[in-house]
Amino acid sequence: MATLDPSDLQAVWLTLKLASVSTFLLLLIATPLAWWLAHSGKWYKGMVAAVVALPLVIPPTVLGFYLLLLMGPHGVVGELTTAMNLGRLPFTFAGLVIGSVLFSMPFAVQPIQSAFEAIGKRPLEVAATLRASAWDRFLSVALPLARPGFLTAIILAFAHTVGEFGVVLMLGGNIPGETRVISVAIYNHVEALEYGAAHWLAGGMVLFSFIVLLGLYLAGGRSWKGAR
Amino acid sequence: MKSRKVNVLVWVGSLLLGATASAATAGEVNAAVAANFTAPVQQIAELFQKETGHTVKLSFGSSGKFYSQIKEGAPFDVFLAADEKNPKLLEQEGLAVANTRFVYALGKLVLWSAQPGFVDAKGAVLRKDNSNKIAYTDPKLAPYGLAAKETLGKLGLWDVVQSKLVTAESISQAYQFAATGNAELAFIALSQITKDGKVTEGSWWIVPAHMYNPIRQSAVQLSAAKDAAASQAFLAFLKSDKAAAIIRSFGYELP
Question: A68 touching B, CB under 8 A?
């Protein structure tokens, strides 16, 4: 039976790196965004929420296609990155990170937003009467109470990035060590009729996804009980 | 308002009637076609439909993928591959009808850039250092990718350009990478940039035929063909002079 070759292991490592970096960036972006969505009363809140949720609905290839055009030499982002001497983003790891962050955005924002909404205004108002500053209220009241939401967001964003295919296929160029992630490696093995190697990677993905979801439900169950 | 509703009803009704009427008299061919042959086969199928009344449903993709799908029972009647290997394999496995395989076109490899004046007539641009990325398709999977690898090998540049190579999923994507300017150069099929016998956009180098093994694009009738008569008619039409003229107009040669 065929086993994994070094380039497959490289793909596994690259996938984990991509998912970790993307998840980290997503937390930085999604937390304030979710806070704003949970508390804002602005008329355009619905519009922002819809844009955030868009990747749930549009095919990844559509997102990948537009990113390819935007980041290309004739695109706005491409012109900007070239002007800043950063080169161009398609076919690079950085390009994939941007694609993944956009693609997994709803998976990070929505659980955190729900968690913030579930807290309600009361605990924060109580904290305010105790003279906690806005920053303090956020850090020592809202964040700990929203922990289950953050946990869900981290796991979903990470897992969703690991499972990503369409965006990577459109943007990546299949370069080993740079943009060749597991899902693309599997696709290539299947195309080359190397079913043995494909099974190793694909089976690993199924097992990984199951463990992640199992962990999610177990952790969710515990924190729900804890909340009661 | 009311009359518009009635109009729609009549229109839908005639569509349904028309569909059943033509189904009763004419056959249907489901064709799996290599991506590089997209434009010519559309013209050929249109002409074929006009002349015979049979309908042709076209699916485009890479030959390797079609091979796997046909092996797993995909409902295709004919297979127009980008190479000779995949149809041959299907024949050996009894999935294609014996003695129906023939070379319908000889593919031509071209080095193309979306920028006018970027590629010179001898492909010397490959030796220069002013290109960032060169898009091609996986040599292990795609005949045009293999031809590109052979060409780069002949030029002694295979090792030199390694860091610039970007592997596209299909030859259509290789074109797309170059058309959007994300890759300065791409090894693609001449047919992708040819219209009515002429290349009009960007700059290009038609790679001389001696630099790579011939790309013998082969067609075959599949054993699972539901409408064998219509399938045979389509393959026969593909060999006709009318089809040959269309195929040549896209830059292919004929065997």
Answer: yes
Q: What is the pTM of this model?
A: 0.78
> Is A134 inside a domain boundary?
no
Residues 6+ apart with CB under 8 A from A155: A212, A215, A216, A219
Strands (E), chain B: 28-34, 55-61, 78-80, 102-107, 109-113, 134-137, 165-168, 185-189, 194-195, 198-199, 203-206, 215-221
In tens digits, what is the pLDDT along chain B, a chain of 255 residues? 445 555 555 555 555 544 444 444 579 999 999 989 999 999 999 999 999 999 999 998 888 888 888 988 888 999 999 999 999 999 999 999 999 999 999 999 999 999 999 999 888 899 887 778 999 999 988 899 999 999 999 999 999 999 899 999 888 899 999 999 999 999 999 999 988 788 888 999 999 999 999 999 999 999 988 889 999 999 999 999 999 999 999 989 998
**Does A85 contact chain B (CB < 8 Å)?**
no
CATH number among 3.30.300.20, 2.30.110.10, 3.80.10.10, 3.40.190.10, domain B109-206: 3.40.190.10
Chain A environment of B177 (Cβ under 8 Å) = 68, 90, 173
Using DSSP, state whether A24 is helix, strand or coil.
helix
Residue A184 forms part of a structural domain? yes
> Is residue A180 situated within a structural domain?
yes
A192 to chain B, closest Cα gap in Å: 6
Residues 161-200 of A with CB under 8 A from B: 169-170, 173-175, 187-188, 190-193
- Please count the structural domains in chain A: 1
- What CATH number is attached to the domain comprising A167? 1.10.3720.10
Q: What are phi and psi of B135, to 5 degrees?
A: -90, 140
State which residue of chain B sits closest to A165, comparing Cα positions.
Answer: B169
Whether ipTM > 0.85 holds is: no
Output the CATH code of domain B2-106+217-249: 3.40.190.10
